[in-house]
Amino acid sequence: MRPAVLFILITVVLDSMGIGLIIPVMPDLIQEIQGADLSNAALWGGVLSTTFAVMQFLFGTVIGGLSDRFGRRPVLLTSLVVMALDYLVMAVAGSIALLLLGRVVGGITAATQATANAYMADISQPEDRSANFGLVGAAFGLGFVLGPLLGGLLAEYGTRAPFYAAAALAAINALFGFFVLRETVTQETRRPFRWARANPLGSFRQLARLPGVGPLLVVFFLYQVAFMVYPAIWAFFGKERFGWEPATIGLSLALFGIMLAIVQGGLIRIVLRVLGERVTVVYGHLFDIGAFLALAFVTNGTLALILTPLAALAAVITPALQGIMSKAVPADAQGELQGALTSASALAMILSPMMMTGVFAAFARDDAPIYLPGAPFILSAGLIVAGLIVFISFPPRNAIATRDPQ
User: Fewer CB within 10 A of the terminal residue: the chain, N end or C end?
Assistant: First the structure.
């Protein structure tokens, strides 16, 4: 594997590691700062996640557009350096206000995965893009394995230790990238930066004009809203439903991440070869519906640990959708596409945490009319059904993407 590709994959690993590192400690950290009970801590967790997502939504297409103009290298390296500094700030935060500030900065720098996907698109043949996007997804899954495990272990040394670890890892990888990452944006594919296209709505409008891309953006968005149930409520769900400690929460997320890495790093190549991209998307949706409904009603912690990695078998959806859309846009707009997908994910993160934590709080409190901590998973299953309906309602369209003169 080329060192530059290794750097890209490590960057995505560290991206998801940074998220996974802090998930096991978030309930205790918020309770430590606020002195709140668990249900209120869950609501504050939703606020923090939403703040992060708002920044990602607003700046995702900006970062993607900047990478199309100035190149992938400066965007990736700058993001990592600022990310390291941001985690240091969060490590010393003594108030919710400072944690919110950390999430603001972190959301702006969180376009790393979008730029990483754009880099992979730059170096891939069209027929290989879905599989290579799967590599990026596998790296994300590996980070989910390592992050929660380390976060759970580091929690033994205090709620701040994971933040210091995330800062150190981001800084080390930035140094590695400085020496090995070459630029892939050439003069032929470099495009002027325009604010009219750098805002999310402008980018969505431009991409939606390409045949068949608009409905796929809707499907991608609905899937992201449903998938965000995991980072939004998993730690709170595990603690409330099964009495899990941070180490067990970390273990459960690690099991999910292991399977995610296996699916997107290897299994997806077999699935794509056998089923093709469209049937792969349908399969993933059907599997996700079953997985979400099973998690909604499980009451045994051991069974939940078994179901967690099985749920990752639906993770073929994202790279397959990315591959279909990447083929529909010109070479000079790959960064814009990935930025738009980042913004779509961020918009999902804006809506989903508040929705999911709100539903969790409503059904997990002592005076709830029906005690069902797994209720958010039922909502996610419904969203997946909606996405599947949209996907099968719009047949594929063959079109050649041309360079946009704008």
Answer: N
